Amino acid sequence: MREGSGRSAALAAFPVVRTASVRARCIGVEGGSLFGIDLAHRAALVAGSGGGIGGASVRALARSGAAVACIDIDERAADEAAQQATELGAHAVAIVADLSQRDHVERAVSDAEARIGPIDILVDVVGEARWGRTIEFDDEEWDATFDLVLRHFFHLARAVGRRMVERDHGGSIVAIASVSGLRSAPLHGPYGAAKAGLMSLVRTLAVELASNRIRVNSVAPGSVLTPRVMAMMSAERRAASSAAIPLGRFAEPEDVANAVAFLASDLASYITGQTLVVDGGATAQFPLSLRA
Length: 292
Ligand SMILES: NC(=O)c1ccc[n+]([C@@H]2O[C@H](COP(=O)([O-])OP(=O)(O)OC[C@H]3O[C@@H](n4cnc5c(N)ncnc54)[C@H](O)[C@@H]3O)[C@@H](O)[C@H]2O)c1
What we know:
The chain is an alpha/beta fold. 43% of the residues lie in helices and 13% in strands. The protein has nine helices and seven strands; from the N terminus they run αβαβαβαβαβαβαααβ. It has helices spanning 6-13, 52-63, 75-87, 102-116, 139-167, 189-209, 227-232, 235-243, 253-264, and strands at 43-47, 67-72, 92-96, 121-124, 171-176, 214-221, 275-278. Helix 5 links the parallel strand 4 (121-124) and strand 5. Helix 2 (52-63) crosses helix 9. The chain starts with 5 loop residues before the first helix and ends in a 14-residue tail after the last strand. Nicotinamide-adenine-dinucleotide binds at residues 48, 50-54, 72-74, 77, 97-100, 125-129, 176, 178, 221, 223-224, 226, 228-229.
């Protein structure tokens, strides 16, 4: 086939995306863009929706037209996320659950489905680092990190994945990993190991669920300016760390949320089992410079 040029040829090259009718809703992509993210008529469950990356993900999905169930252990944070999504025109509900508890996971997923419909998109943001020298961690701290970072994702992906398979309508699962699981750094012992396990589980789920048209991916942020990170870092330390990042700044939560919305959408329909690194180039660079 002869290669065409201009807008009509570009449209013909990507028939899967309903570009002609799509409203360009994706944040960071203004009206008139060829590739808007359209999640209209999709139901999304965001776990850990009350935090920096979770809140931004809720807003990105809501702007893209999805109905959103905002789940968090913190009731006020879940309510606020749902409120923000509602103000953006989305159907949104808040659900309080401790997702490190298996029975809470089952209950929260059932509740979400009862209130926004069968889940098409799962975004799992829950996780928290404990920093320390590996040889100084005790077993309880090690287990607590693995429970919060990895085990809850197994429970959540299993609960949602089983429902997606049963429904036979496909789906998309996106987990928030971390560059800590890709590269080593002092004090990252259990957190990095658990995030590495999370990315491994994402790949396995992706190949197991591909025949059910369920895509499973992760996003690995570098340093993100969430309220939690801002609270624990001085301005001086942040400036010094920013200087070591090729793009010269920390990520905003929206930088990560844009990647989440992309992977959740049909624009990523041929992407599964992958980790999308969102780190301003931090892990791409060789640590030694030839310049004096
Ligand atoms: N902020 C960063 O620099 C950064 C970098 C790489 C990866 N990450 C990862 O991104 C994710 C979010 O990070 P963040 O900085 O936005 O964190 P955050 O603390 O702002 O958000 C986490 C949210 O999860 C909720 N949560 C915690 N435990 C829960 C539980 N048991 N059940 C239900 N909800 C629970 C919290 O209430 C909070 O709203 C985490 O998985 C983190 O490991 C963050």
